[in-house]
Q: What sequence folds into this?
């Protein structure tokens, strides 16, 4: 018997506005109205400025740690723009641009990194999940959120973001398998920035594309230039259409690059070539939109200067708001996990105020006290 | 805010944690001068942490009044980096004109210290908090005490559960102890001080009678922090005459790491050295036979290593690490033999793991490989740690006897001198023999003099009876 092909596939790569601001009219025209593009550009610039300021805040002891978003603004921004306002955004921690576009106040991100839990108390109507610091957890959350939406008969989908490194985590594969086999409308949005902190992508993925990992799960996938907001919007719309019409998940690999360190606790110069970084600086997502807008007469130096001034004021005001918030009450420590606080937690909360730091008084004084009866379910 | 609170009056800037869990940073270069106006976010200094070279910006706009430190200084997180001139004051190009705020958070630390494992004792409060004032440490080492606001207003002391447990065990009423830790937390050292009667514990429970922990006798304290502190005490260094300096080499990098390790060793271990010479005439003949059989050059060292392994089996207390933090002597089963290697960048001690399972040929080739990997700096981190006994082959460079410094926390080290032909006597007759000088240093806290001498004698026995050694 001759050997036949069991399976063949191709993975498309989408690029619409390239690094030299060459524009593919056929794919790109009408994709983003001019007025929207100007607003997207402005948002990205403000986000970039916040990045620079937050970095300084950490270095002067005003913030615990901070992962710079620099260079990756187009990915989450494009996705947030392309999705409905009631679709879930389930971020990792380099999606500030998308969250701000959705309406998250900048000071909430600052509060988060200043170690204030209230930075995670995202208003319900924004349909954003808090930042996910442990690598990989959020993909399962997104799958669960989208599954819940499907169960309730809502047309809502979830879009979750993660890096190339996260695709080596077990959680990623569980989420992918679950979503593909149960027809869950979730968009897996991989920001492939080539570096899992200091581990280069090629060490942890032997395949030439990350997108191939989706093929194994029978999931539709596409690769795009993640520094091109047009490509991102194109791909996310395609994914969202499939999710809404057929309830199918979709995997997007957006090829991008983080221009800064992994976080303020990292020094990327120790493991990355400067030449590589310099090459990517020329592919900056912000620069190419500015070129595009300028050649179309939609942007000029006066507007740029005004924007710079506004970015500075807006970010300074956000920093001011974040830093002037009163310290949280000690009770907050206990109050945000459960809708109704369980008796043993309540006991800890109350004993903390009368004895030492959350300890059962019986452990401190030898006093025997009766625990409130646990409610059985 | 990374555990550091900047002053509300913006009079000075305290070095924050520049990464995650960073305790100190080396000042590489100032980017501002006294008298300069700085804007918020403007870079003031370049500093290097154990992870990264970072630029440190000013958190607010102001005029630089004083720069607390100079290039090469290691600054502890929590100490003052920069003082700002008071508003309206003119600043001369000297630091003297600045009215110094709270004296206790002056200046950086010009380090004379060892590994700052200061957080090893986090459960007992903050170590830097522990040492403040109460241990005779200069005030610049201490963080700004915050206990005024934290604990004097109420009758309740702050302490971690672990410390509360210690209080219970010691029978100390924790409410009556004034904490010296961060935020006024009561630390384990505070409790020990109180329980040892160094201070009178107030019997009343009124808030007014809080007790300040007093100096602690180092020898009685089971506390890493205190050990570290004792080595961190700053010395009044003499002014060094800088006339005729040909080259000024910054004392840092590997050189300083070596210095810190040695410093910790001599300040912690109680050294004594015992020396003897082995008649290796017969062994040298064996060595030549082995070399011919293996077809390689073969030094005396692997034979001595073999003898040491066999002797350690008879005297296991020398194959050990001492855990001073937990007051335990850890006798080790496997013999991981450290071998001091001289490299262009300084002394390194790679570890030959499971040396007791190797024969002479293996020992010879392994020690050669390790030395090479040290010299070209490709040595793996795991090959630089975990030693249980160290050997130093000083003889290959010259010298007879030595007083080797123990590779702490190991408890003994053997220096092998250069073998020389000497006139020896036996049964009243002279003969020419090859003599190998050996110098053994031990930590007297763990190894008694007699035991050290017995061990050395056992090594000698093996070296002088090759048949027993190579059996």
A:
């Amino acid at each position: 018997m001759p050997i036949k092909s069991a399976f063949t596939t191709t993975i498309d790569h989408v690029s619409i506005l390239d690094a030299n601001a060459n524009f593919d009219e056929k794919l790109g025209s009408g994709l983003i109205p001019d007025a929207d593009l100007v607003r997207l550009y402005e948002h990205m610039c403000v986000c970039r400025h916040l990045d620079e300021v937050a970095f300084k805040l950490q270095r002067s002891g005003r913030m615990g740690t901070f992962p710079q978003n620099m260079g990756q603004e187009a990915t989450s921004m494009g996705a947030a723009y392309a999705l409905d306002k009631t679709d879930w955004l389930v971020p990792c921690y380099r999606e500030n641009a998308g969250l701000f576009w959705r309406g998250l106040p900048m000071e909430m991100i600052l509060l988060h990194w200043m170690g204030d839990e209230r930075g995670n108390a995202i208003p319900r109507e924004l349909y954003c999940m808090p930042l996910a610091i442990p690598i990989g957890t959020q993909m399962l959350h997104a799958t669960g959120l989208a599954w819940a939406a499907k169960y309730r008969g809502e047309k809502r989908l979830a879009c979750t973001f993660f890096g190339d490194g996260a695709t080596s985590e077990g959680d990623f594969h569980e989420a992918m398998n679950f979503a593909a086999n149960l027809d869950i409308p979730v968009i897996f949005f991989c920001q492939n920035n080539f570096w899992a902190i200091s581990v280069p992508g090629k060490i942890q993925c032997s395949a030439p594309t990350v997108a191939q990992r989706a093929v194994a799960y029978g999931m539709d996938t596409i690769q795009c230039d993640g520094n091109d907001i047009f490509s991102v919007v194109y791909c996310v719309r395609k994914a969202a259409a499939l999710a809404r019409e057929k309830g199918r998940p979709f995997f997007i690999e957006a090829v991008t690059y983080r221009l800064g360190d992994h976080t303020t606790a990292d020094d990327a110069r120790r493991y990355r070539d400067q030449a590589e970084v310099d090459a990517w600086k020329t592919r900056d997502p912000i620069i190419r939109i500015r070129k595009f807008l300028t050649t179309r007469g939609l942007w000029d130096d006066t507007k740029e200067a005004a924007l710079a001034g506004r970015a500075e004021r807006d970010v300074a005001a956000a920093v001011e708001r974040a830093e002037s918030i009163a310290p949280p009450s000690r009770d907050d420590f206990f109050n945000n996990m459960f809708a109704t606080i369980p008796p043993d937690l309540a006991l800890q909360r109350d004993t903390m105020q009368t004895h030492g730091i959350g300890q059962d008084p019986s452990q401190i004084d030898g006093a025997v006290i009766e625990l409130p009866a646990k409610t059985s379910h | 805010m990374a555990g550091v609170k900047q002053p509300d009056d913006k009079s000075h800037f305290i070095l924050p944690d520049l990464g995650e869990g960073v305790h100190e940073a080396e000042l590489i270069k100032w980017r501002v001068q006294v008298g300069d106006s700085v804007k918020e976010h403007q870079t003031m200094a370049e500093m290097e942490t154990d992870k990264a070279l970072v630029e440190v910006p000013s958190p607010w706009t102001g005029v630089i009044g004083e720069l607390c430190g100079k290039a090469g200084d290691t600054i502890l997180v929590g100490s003052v980096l920069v003082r700002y001139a008071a508003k309206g004051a003119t600043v001369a190009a000297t630091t003297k004109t600045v009215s110094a705020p709270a004296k206790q958070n002056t200046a950086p630390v010009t380090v004379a210290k060892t590994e700052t494992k200061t957080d090893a004792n986090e459960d007992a409060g903050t170590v830097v908090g522990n040492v403040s004032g109460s241990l005779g440490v200069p005030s610049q080492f201490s963080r700004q005490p915050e206990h005024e606001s934290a604990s004097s207003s109420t009758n309740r002391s702050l302490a971690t559960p672990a410390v509360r447990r210690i209080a219970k065990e010691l029978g100390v009423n924790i409410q009556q102890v004034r904490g010296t830790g961060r935020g006024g937390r009561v630390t384990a050292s505070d409790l020990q001080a109180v329980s040892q009667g160094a201070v009178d514990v107030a019997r009343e429970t009124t808030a007014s009678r809080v007790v300040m922990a007093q100096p602690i006798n180092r020898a009685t304290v089971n506390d890493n922090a205190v050990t570290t502190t004792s080595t961190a005490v700053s010395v009044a260094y003499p002014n060094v005459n800088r006339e005729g300096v040909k080259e000024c080499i910054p004392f840092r990098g590997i050189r300083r790491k070596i210095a810190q390790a040695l410093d910790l060793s001599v300040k912690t271990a109680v050294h004594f050295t015992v020396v003897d010479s082995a008649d290796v005439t017969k062994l040298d003949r064996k060595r030549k036979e082995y070399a011919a059989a293996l077809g390689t050059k073969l030094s005396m060292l692997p034979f001595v290593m073999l003898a040491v392994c066999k002797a350690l089996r008879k005297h296991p207390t020398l194959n050990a690490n001492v855990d001073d933090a937990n007051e335990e002597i850890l006798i080790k089963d496997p013999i991981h033999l450290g071998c001091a290697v001289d490299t262009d960048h300084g002394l390194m001690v790679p570890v030959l793991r499971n040396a007791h399972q190797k024969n002479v040929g293996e020992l010879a080739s392994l020690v050669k490989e390790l030395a090479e990997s040290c010299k070209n700096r490709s040595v793996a981190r795991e090959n630089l740690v975990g030693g249980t006994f160290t050997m130093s082959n000083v003889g290959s460079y010259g010298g007879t006897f030595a007083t080797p410094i123990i590779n702490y926390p190991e408890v003994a080290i053997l220096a092998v001198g250069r073998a020389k032909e000497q006139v020896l006597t036996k049964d009243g007759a002279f003969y020419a023999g090859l003599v190998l000088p050996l110098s053994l240093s031990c930590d007297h806290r763990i190894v008694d003099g007699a035991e050290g001498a017995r061990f050395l004698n056992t090594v000698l026995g093996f070296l002088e009876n090759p048949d027993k050694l190579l059996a």
